[in-house]
Amino acid sequence: MNGKFRIxxxxxxxxxxxxxxxxxQPRAMSYFGLNLLFNLAVPIALATIAQMMIIMVNDIDLSxxxxxxxxxxxxxxxxxxxxxxxxxxxxxxxxxxxxxxxxIHLRQLPAIVVTLGMSFVWGGLAVLxxxxxxxxxxxxxxxxxxxxxxxxPMAIVASVLIAALTHLLIMRSATGTLxxxxxxxxxxxxxxxxxxxKLKAGAYGLAGFFGVLxxxxxxxxxxxxxxxxxxxxxxxxxxxxILGGGEFTGGRVSPVGAVLGALTLALAGSFLSFMRLSPDxxxxxxxxxxxxxxxxxxxxxxxxxxxxxxx
Amino acid sequence: MNTLSQSLSTTWRRPWFWAxxxxxxxxxxxxxxxxxxxxxxxxxxxxxxxxxxxxxxIGQMFIITLGPGNVDLSIPATMTLAxxxxxxxxxxxxxxxxxxxxxxxxxxxxxxVFNYLLIRLLxxxxxxxxxxxxxxxxxxxxWSNRGLRIKPPxxxxxxxxxxxxxxxxxxxVGIAIAIVAWFILERSLYGRWISAIGQNMxxxxxxxxxxxxxxxxxxxxxxxxxxxxxxxxxxxxxxAALNMGAEYLLISIAVVVIGGSSIAGGNSNxxxxxxGALLMFLIVSMLNSYGLGAGVRLIMTGVxxxxxxAAAAGKEGSR
Amino acid sequence: MKPDSPSGSPAPAPLVSLSDVRMQFGAVRALxxxxxxxxxxxxxxxxxxxxxxxxxxxxxxxxxxxxxxGTVGYRLADGSSASGAxxxxxxxxxxxxxxxxxxxNLTVAENLRIPQHDLKxxxxxxxxxxxxxxxxxxxxxxxxxEPGMVVGDLTLAExxxxxxxxxxxxxxxxxxxxxxxxxxxxxxxxxxxQLLDHVRGFCARGGAVIFISHMLGEVFEVxxxxxxxxxxxxxxxxxxxxFTQQSLIDAMGHVASQEAVTAVRENADERIGEQxxxxxxxxxxxxxxxxxxxxxxxxxxxxxxxxxxxSRSGTxxxxxxxxxxxxxxxxxxxxxxxxxxxxxNLTLTHLPALSRKSLVDSVMEKTLGADWxxxxxxxxxxxxxxxxxxxxxxxxxxxxxRALASTAPIVxxxxxxxxxxxxxxxxxxxxxxxxxxxxxxxxxxSTETEEVCQCDRVFVYRxxxxxxxxxxxxxxxxxxxxxxxxxxxxxx
Lengths: 311, 319, 492
Known about the structure:
The complex is a heterotrimer of chains A (311), B (319) and C (492).
Chain A: H1 2-24, H2 31-38, H3 41-56, H4 64-81, H5 83-106, H6 111-129, H7 139-145, H8 154-172, H9 174-184, H10 186-191, H11 196-222, H12 233-243, H13 255-274, H14 282-305
Chain B: H1 4-11, H2 17-34, H3 39-65, H4 75-90, H5 97-121, H6 126-145, H7 154-161, E1 163-164, E2 167-168, H8 169-187, H9 189-199, H10 201-206, H11 211-237, H12 248-258, H13 271-289, H14 294-316
Antiparallel strand pairs in B: 1-2
Helix pairs in contact in B: 2-13, 3-8, 3-11, 3-12, 3-13, 4-5, 4-6, 4-11, 5-6, 5-11, 7-11, 8-9, 12-13, 13-14
Chain C: E1 16-25, E2 28-38, E3 43-48, H1 54-61, E4 69-75, E5 81-82, H2 84-90, E6 93-96, H3 108-111, H4 124-139, H5 156-168, E7 177-181, H6 189-204, E8 208-212, H7 216-222, E9 225-230, E10 233-239, H8 245-252, H9 258-264, H10 268-271, E11 275-278, E12 284-286, E13 290-294, H11 301-311, H12 316-320, E14 324-327, H13 331-334, H14 342-347, E15 355-356, E16 359-360, H15 362-376, H16 392-404, E17 410-414, H17 422-437, E18 441-445, H18 449-452, E19 457-462, E20 465-471, H19 477-484
Parallel strand pairs in C: 3-8, 3-9, 6-7, 7-8, 13-18, 13-19, 14-17, 17-18
Antiparallel strand pairs in C: 1-2, 1-4, 4-5, 9-10, 11-12, 15-16, 19-20
Helix pairs in contact in C: 4-5, 16-17
């Protein structure tokens, strides 16, 4: 029961925001308007999925923002000029992410500090590649991100695709279920003969993969890159996962919810400019939405479980 | 009482020792290039900039001491908000310097209370609670700033950028805070209690420690320190920029780790915070002097952090 | 002891055989030469009081623990033999324990993915759902658990039903021997009945079950043979018909030395004063009284103590002037601060009294440490050594001193002597007596009957509630055992 209600919250918050936007600016309810509103949501959604993979196994990734920035820099330079090397670099980074996951489990390292350190590493690499903004988006990515499908704008189509595919991967497949089990009851999974290090490496590798997708898409939209282009993605991705019904521990995540959460947060920004409220409150609104959703969730869980929890 | 030789032999086994050794090495390596010139200026700059990192780092250290998962991600936003509001309040008027300080500390206090209430009442994990709160503080700061760049009162600005007996004033403040923090951590009842909570929260509760009170006071204390740092930093920089706190998020955690405090809680030290803060600055200047750009500097910082954590995990074994 | 062989047809080849198995955990001898076999069609009731070695034996049987001595062998379906955890799985040995091995975030069907590695590829969900639904329908007809329900949303009883069903469910290797450890503890009577019927049917069809339960009536219903364990050995093993409920309890007990028991409860009348505590659930104690909490482990004693302690502590005022102090039994989880010295661990609760203006007075602290080191006999050369340098028994002494050094009039003890050597125990008993004589009240949960018999009053817990309150001469092993196990009326 509680599980079904969880997805309602991000749906409702997104719905309410959308309704408010359309009420204030009816012209936004158009193909062009929607595309504009949700354009930058696609890379954010991908980064949120990446963070979700890590949160799914009871860790947290403080390096998402710098990693996506790094990927963006690689895309705008190597992937453009010498695609083979670009692909190799991106592939190596995904492997590095997987290796980190195994290392964190095998040595029982605190993920928050290791990813903190890695954020410096990715950031440094990004600065080395692009000391100042520049580079150019490879043609095929640019085309892909600016394609104009009929009826529904690309941003929506992409978001639906991302949500659907990751839902199949994480919620429906045998492997995805196993990974979620690692977050739910690691001891039980280990006792059943599974190697946790391998599973964690898999989860982290998936995070790296989606981080790569996020950076590539981002460059497709902005056409150039710089080393700080996605720094805010770290905090946004965490907020998006939680907003979407995910929980910090216990392996309870929702890919659809995460994408909805990312869309909501992205929309919150656009909403305020439509309200002709100053953009000052943009991030404040994102924080307030997060707190509000968590408060509502607490009230719901208190009601269904009956008693209040003990301190 | 330990004899001198006993003290010396235990010194190198302290967790903060290597941070100072590395800082000295970085300092020496930099001077190597300039053939010994500019050492005084470098030292002065190091202590100045490290002071800001150290003060917020001390606040973060107390929170991390409480145990795994306890971290304050709202420190940069609190700094920004405190700096913005206090400078605005003072409006360049030198007679309002002390009330301005009170405003900054008050902002910190309010932020700390809000953070704790989110954690306690809404049962939100500290990371998420301070994260969402930081969004709100940042917004308030942006809104109140209105793009005007208000300067600090001249006297305050002189104090923040000046020195007494050759030591930068902000460094004096930072060292004074460190000394007080050391007493609190090592000698006070509160320090014992939070160390117990960090090692074993359940056992701490079963030993009669008022755990919730400790959480509240620690989160509030760290936010107050962040408020103070915002006040000083804004006065030092000639105004409160809206991104003034950005880099302090990672730095505040990094100096705790580099200084040898355990990220799992229950085992922190104050000297290491200053050691870590100095190291962070001196590594940057060393690499800058050697012509290695920001990129290498960042990578090295990351590698240092990971190496220290991995080495510490090996020593502690499984906890 | 050799089990009686059934009359008539020769016994089928055993699924698992233990031969003189020993299990040593450091200084503790959990299993001291256990030999048994389990064959198809047998339902073995494993009975024993706390610390008898049941869980250890079961973990050796399912391959989770490798014995330090003796051998464990399994027989596979094709007749070949195997060993180790993999061998146990291949031989179809499944375990259903009390601590849940379900992932609360996954659905009932998804949880099957974890133990059953062959569930993958196309259509795995359908197969998983079918397997678990089949098992649930077979064992608990009329249940209302859907394979698509999230485990976290299920009640405790439903979760236990899912765990049990998983134990019997169809898999790549069918279940041959299912170990059930207190399977009905969260089930109501009608559902428990369904399980018992299923177990009987399962064994009749050639399966085997190990059934651990404190509900003797259930054991007598399903078991073909009962093995009684004590002190790491099987001391009696007969066909169920060879026991009565009473003779079973007698088999578990032993003669406690009379003098030890009476000597302790001396000068009770002078010592004991007015009532100092009374909880809604029926626990009460008077000043200077030593009150014992008894019964099988995990039946609510620790929770009762914890509830009482939490209700009287946690504020700043209570930290400075404690009303209750706690002595932990699970040292690692509830007591020891692993990074600290012996001294710091010892003085923790009393620290506010050792502080001047919130700063700890190190001279007063050292004095207190030295005082208690002598009083309680902590064997170390320097109180500044790390706490983990001490032996387990000495660590326990430090935790005792931590509680007794404070001024609190009530001392709550959560089975503190578990795994502690005899010498330390004797010293601790002496100290408890002395403190009680000077007016301190003790609430003492112990899993050892001998200790509980030293108390002035004993509350026996069963299924989370007080099942008996014993005073004076009523306090003996017989009464305690009788109140710990649930004796049910059963037909024939």
